[in-house]
Design a protein that fits this description.
The chain is of the alpha+beta class. The chain has one domain: Beta-lactamase (3-Layer(aba) Sandwich), CATH 3.40.710. It is built from 11 helices and 13 strands. Strands 1, 2, 8, 9, 10, 11, 12 and 13 form an 8-stranded antiparallel beta sheet that branches. A 3-stranded antiparallel beta sheet has the order 3-7-4. Strands 5-6 form a two-stranded antiparallel ribbon. β11 and β12 form a beta hairpin. This is Beta-lactamase-related domain-containing protein.
Length: 390
C-alpha cells in the first residue's frame, strides 16, 4: 500500500491487494527443502525451475533490485529454492537469510484468536471492553472485527503524525500505546461491523486483547501456539531493530537517499509484522494455514469462509478475512516494509506455493510492491489454467 509518496506498508500492502481484487476500500508438515540446504536455484533439466529463475533474474534487472530469496513448490514437489543478487552489496545472497516477515504474521494472530475462542479463554464476538475498557467504542468492537478489518478504527499508518515520526527516525520504534493513540487521533471510518477497511491499527489492538486475555506477551503466545508446534525454528517475534545473521539486507530510497534499512525498527508495525523469518519457515506456515493444521475442522472452515462478503465491495469470491486475502482458489499476501518487498501465492486446489522476498536498488520504485509481478508470473507459469487474479 502507498500511504504517501514515500511510505511503505509494514506488513502487507493489503490495501493494494484489496484494490487489485477490484474493491474500493494437527500435524506438522515442513517445507520440503530448508533454505540452509544451499542455493539450489534450478535443478538441471527442469524447465519450470529454470523459468522461475529466469523470471526472477529478469525482474531484478528491470526493477533494479539488489537481492532476492525465494521458494516455489507444487504440492510436495520442490520446483525451485534459492537466492539471487547481493546481501550486503558486493556479497552473494543465500537462501537461508532472514527477512522481516510482514503480513504473513497477521493470520497467526487470527489463528491464536480462534484457538482461544475454542478453549473458552475469550469470546471472539464479545466486546473488547472486557479487556480494553478505555478504548473508544470498546463496547461495540469485537476481536473478530479486529481480525477481519471491520472495526472502523482509523489506520495509524496513514496518519501524517505517524509518517513524520517514523521517517524522522525509523530506528526508534513505537509502543502499542503510541500506535493506539495515533490511531485514535482521527475519527473512526464507520460504525463497528458495518463495513470493511484494512487498518494496521486493528492488529495492534487485537494483539493487546490477546495479551490481556491470556496474561502473556504476544511473542510468547505465537511461540507456544504457532512457531513451536510447526517447528519454525528460524522465526521469532522481535521488539527491537535487531536481526540475526545471516539476514537479507533491506535497501530503500524512501527517505530520498539509497540506504541500508535492515535495522529499521519493526515495532512501527507492532503485531502485524514484527517478526524475522526465512522463506522455508514462511512455506511451513502457509501450508499449515491453508491446511488448518493448528485449528479444528470447524475453526478452519470459519477462518477460510467469506465472512466479510457483502461489506464494501467484498464478494464470496474476492474477500479479506482473518488476516488473509482470498481471490478464487488463491490465498495472497504481499508484505512490504523498509526495503523488504514480498509476495505469497498459494493455490488451494493444486497446493502450488510461491514465496519471494526482494530488496530494492537505488532506482527501484519504493511505492509499489516489487515482488508482486514476479510472484504472479511464476504462479501463472505453474497454474496456467487458473492463474491468480491479483
Amino acid at each position: 500500500m502507498r500511504v504517501s509518496t514515500r511510505v511503505r506498508r509494514s506488513t502487507s500492502t493489503l490495501l493494494l491487494a484489496v484494490l487489485a481484487l477490484g474493491l474500493v476500500t494437527g500435524g506438522t508438515r515442513q517445507a520440503l527443502v530448508r533454505a540452509s540446504d544451499g542455493p539450489a536455484t534450478a535443478p538441471a533439466g527442469d524447465s519450470d525451475a529454470q523459468q522461475v529463475v529466469e523470471i526472477i533474474e529478469r525482474a531484478m534487472k528491470e526493477q533494479d533490485l539488489t537481492g532476492a530469496v525465494y521458494g516455489v513448490w507444487r504440492g510436495d514437489e520442490v520446483v525451485a529454492v534459492g537466492a539471487i543478487g547481493d546481501s550486503p552489496i558486493g556479497l552473494p545472497a543465500t537462501p537461508d537469510m532472514l527477512v522481516r516477515i510482514g503480513q504473513p504474521m497477521e493470520p497467526m494472530l487470527s489463528t491464536v484468536l480462534l484457538q482461544l475462542d475454542g478453549e473458552g479463554v475469550l469470546d471472539q464476538d464479545a466486546p473488547i471492553a472486557k479487556w480494553l475498557p478505555d478504548f473508544p467504542r470498546a463496547d461495540q468492537i469485537t476481536p473478530r472485527m479486529l481480525a477481519s478489518s471491520t472495526s472502523g478504527i482509523s489506520d495509524y499508518v496513514t496518519n501524517p503524525n505517524f509518517l513524520e515520526q517514523f521517517y524522522a527516525n525509523p530506528f526508534t520504534g513505537f509502543t502499542s500505546e503510541q500506535l493506539i493513540a495515533l490511531a485514535n487521533e482521527r475519527p473512526p471510518l464507520f460504525a463497528p461491523g458495518t463495513d470493511f477497511a484494512y487498518a494496521h491499527s486493528d492488529l495492534v489492538v487485537l494483539g493487546q486483547v490477546l495479551q490481556a486475555a491470556t496474561g502473556k506477551p504476544l511473542g510468547d503466545l505465537l511461540q507456544e501456539r504457532i512457531l513451536d508446534p510447526l517447528a519454525m525454528g528460524d522465526s521469532k517475534v522481535v521488539l527491537t531493530s535487531q536481526i540475526d545473521e545471516p539476514y537479507l539486507h533491506g535497501y530503500t530510497n524512501e527517505r530520498g537517499v539509497f540506504e541500508d534499512s535492515s535495522f529499521w525498527n519493526p515495532t512501527a508495525f507492532l503485531h502485524s509484522g514484527n517478526m524475522t523469518t526465512t522463506v522455508a519457515d514462511v512455506a511451513t506456515w502457509i501450508r499449515a494455514l491453508a491446511d488448518g493444521q493448528l485449528l479444528t475442522a470447524e475453526q478452519h472452515a470459519a477462518m477460510m469462509a467469506p465472512s466479510t462478503a457483502g461489506l464494501d465491495s467484498l464478494t464470496t469470491d474476492k474477500f479479506f478475512a482473518y488476516g488473509v486475502a482470498h481471490a478464487g482458489d488463491w490465498l495472497f499476501m504481499n508484505p512490504a516494509y523498509g526495503g523488504y518487498h514480498g509476495v505469497v501465492y498459494y493455490d488451494t486446489q493444486t497446493q502450488t506455493l510461491v514465496i519471494a522476498y526482494v530488496t530494492l536498488g537505488p532506482t527501484s520504485d519504493a511505492n509499489t510492491d516489487n515482488a508482486l509481478p514476479l510472484g504472479k508470473e511464476i504462479a501463472t507459469l505453474l497454474v496456467p489454467n487458473n492463474p491468480p487474479q491479483i
